[in-house]
Specification:
heterodimer; A: 345 residues; alpha/beta; TIM Barrel; Helicase, Ruva Protein, domain 3; 2 domains; 8-stranded parallel barrel; 45% helix; B: 302 residues; Rossmann fold; 11 strands; 36% helix; 26% strand; globular
């Protein structure tokens, strides 16, 4: 693979996707220290939001340590060069949340929908673009559709005003050829000045390989997080990816050693558990389950004494998608009842 | 004796509502109003003996007097509803609003239908599909003890979410959250909607979480929830408790499924069915009032 001479923009997810791995309890001080260290290392774009995006604070997804507004107001003014992005899922967050984020000084607004539902994002993408924000359309669980369908949905988001379209492997299910096909389709079919991005999860340990495939197929932006702090087995470990890109002659503008230090010295110490491909996250990658379900399934599994892996497999069979965290307890309750019925016979 | 009604909007909702209204003991659907001459809804209405027009609500106005239209169901969109409502109200027609425009007070039949009796209201709003499916459960908890916060997750099949919902999904979250507070009785409400494209389409699911102010009275809440479910089942037989109520500290969680009757819309679209069924039930209540003289509409043409 020859990527020499290409330029890639790295987008760090520690303080948004990483919120899932921290049960949304990252403190404002931790946010400031991670973001400042990433800024110092040369990361261009840092996402700061509840794991489920603006307005995600809920019983269903978890109540965060502080509000989105408090996080954004604390982090944005501390940034020397880096810009801050926020995520928004229509159906959870609203245009009012978007205005709040803009007022906090957010540079980039990413509007996320399931890969077949782009048309629910029209008002949010349109509003973000009108406000002059760098506006990204973020198509989640992209493994569930063929490249042509993904392109169709990407075109809708482009028509609403998105200047960048993401192929998002929320389940960490894709293999490099899947990424090549999807990013290739987006690159060939979208306007030449529309940027393309890839967001990976490391559930099958494909984060680096998939991100390289994305760059080769024309992606301009790659998501990852220092030390991989993210849902499931985490995001593409950004310090590793940056080092690989450096070896391959790709320009990122991010210091290889400084980013390693951020991962090791700043991010790893705030982890509640090691971010690794454990059995449950491997099941998610293998069965195509939304990565954010991981800790919810572990907690509910413990409560009802049911293997979390069994719950995740069932959620995969039900074709659940991002946001359906409520079905985790529902599935566990069904399994607990089935077990009781068996015993009663 | 029945009260004559018009159905404004010939889309999925309007057509499903017509099929239900044709079976009503109180409502006689006389007109269906659309804007698309080729709409399936207008064709079905014509075949069922209704008068139809594809020229919008203006074409209906001249016939209100001669056809003695007393009630109109508006299943158009939040953008069009205010103007429709103004024109219809001017001619003394009571408007039942199935759009998220929410000009009039909210109506969730098993919770507050009786409160609308004798108020001489000219417009009532049906909140949202998610609201109709979840507000009764919040009310079932809040009538036992104070609910500090209520949150609902409505998951519907992608195929059952029309362009109106999709273009303005914020309206859904906003209107439903307001309904959880104003009708459900929660101190604060939050609504989440998920559109799932799975095939075959999934039946509507609704999860209701309440945080009670004090420790929940489990026995009383359980009974109240089951009583309320029976009330909803009177007009939506497929309203079913899947799991719960689950008690976890001050959290009370209820997991519902809403299967439709499969009139015009398939059974999985319980979200649309519960709207049309609730709207019809509301209309029937007003029709009863009109017939027995307790509700007097403003004179036509006033």
């Amino acid at each position: 693979m020859n990527l020499a001479g290409k330029t890639v923009r790295l987008h760090d997810m520690c303080l948004r996707d990483g919120m899932h791995a921290k049960r949304h309890l990252i403190s404002v001080d931790q946010m400031i220290s991670v973001a400042s260290a990433l800024d110092e290392a040369g990361i261009h774009l840092i996402e700061v939001t509840h794991g489920d995006g603006l307005g995600g604070a809920s019983i269903n997804y978890g109540f965060p340590a502080s509000t989105d507004q408090e996080y954004l107001q604390a982090v944005v003014p501390q940034m020397k060069n880096a810009r801050v992005s926020a995520l928004l899922l229509p159906g959870i967050g609203t245009v009012e949340h978007l205005h709040m984020a803009r007022d906090c000084g957010v540079h980039t607004l990413r509007v996320a929908t399931h890969c077949t539902e782009a048309d629910v994002a029209e008002q949010h993408i349109g509003s973000a673009r009108k406000l002059g924000l760098d506006t990204v359309g973020f198509l989640m669980m992209a493994h569930m559709v063929e490249p042509e369908q993904l392109l169709e949905q990407g075109k809708l988001m482009e028509s609403y005003g998105a200047n960048c379209i993401y192929c998002t492997d929320s389940a960490g299910y894709m293999l490099p050829d899947d990424v090549t096909a999807r990013i290739g389709a987006l690159r060939a079919g979208l306007e030449p000045d529309t940027e393309i991005g890839f967001h990976g999860h490391h559930n099958l340990a494909m984060g680096i390989a998939n991100s390289l495939a994305a760059v080769e197929a024309g992606a301009d932006r790659i998501d990852g997080s220092a030390a991989g702090l993210g849902a499931g087995a985490g995001n593409t470990p950004l310090e590793v990816f940056n080092a690989v890109l450096d070896r391959m002659g790709v320009k990122t503008g991010v210091d290889v050693f400084k980013l390693m230090n951020v991962a090791e010295d700043v991010v790893v110490p705030i982890m509640d558990q090691l971010i690794r491909v454990d059995r449950d996250s491997l099941i998610m990658g293998y069965a195509g389950v939304y990565s954010s379900f991981l800790l919810h399934a572990k907690r509910v599994g413990e409560k009802y004494d049911i293997a979390s892996g069994d719950i995740l497999v069932e959620l995969g069979k039900m074709k659940t998608i991002g946001g359906q965290e409520d079905m985790i307890e529902d599935v566990a309750l069904n399994m607990a009842r089935a077990r009781r019925d068996v015993k009663a016979v | 004796m029945k009260v004559n009604a018009a159905l404004v909007g010939s889309g999925n909702i309007g057509t499903d509502l017509m099929m239900k209204a044709l079976r009503s003991d109180w409502i006689n659907p006389v007109w269906m109003v659309g804007i698309d001459p080729d709409s399936d809804g207008l064709a079905k209405a014509g075949a069922s003996g209704l008068k139809t027009t594809h020229e919008g609500v203006d074409a209906l106005l001249d016939h209100i007097g001669e056809d003695d239209i007393k009630i109109a169901f508006d299943a158009t969109s939040a953008y069009v509803h205010p103007e429709n409502s103004r024109k219809l109200e001017q001619r003394g027609v009571l408007v039942i609003d199935l759009t998220p425009a929410a000009i009039g007070p909210y109506c969730v039949p098993p919770v507050n239908l009786q409160e609308h009796v004798g108020k001489q209201e000219a417009n009532v709003n049906m909140v949202s599909c998610g609201g109709q499916a979840t507000i009764p459960m919040v009310a079932a908890v809040s009538r036992v003890q104070p609910v500090e916060y209520a949150e609902i997750v409505a998951t519907v099949a992608s195929k059952s979410a029309g362009p109106g919902t999709r273009k303005n999904i914020d309206e859904f979250t906003r209107t439903t959250a307001n309904g959880l507070e104003r009708v459900g009785g929660a101190g604060r409400g939050k609504a989440i909607i998920i559109l799932n494209p799975a095939e075959p389409p999934l039946i509507m699911r609704d999860t209701i979480h309440c945080l009670t102010q004090d420790d929940p009275d489990q026995e009383a809440i359980r009974k109240s929830v089951h009583d309320m479910i029976r009330e909803v089942q009177k007009y939506v037989p497929g309203y079913r408790l899947k799991n719960g109520p689950v008690f976890d500290g001050r959290r009370v969680s209820i997991f519902m499924e809403v299967k439709g009757l499969g009139d015009y819309l398939p059974e999985y679209a319980g979200n649309l069915d519960i709207m049309t069924a609730a709207a019809l039930r509301t209309g029937e209540m007003f029709a009863e009032e009109i017939i027995n003289g307790t509700l007097q509409l403003a004179a036509a043409g006033a």
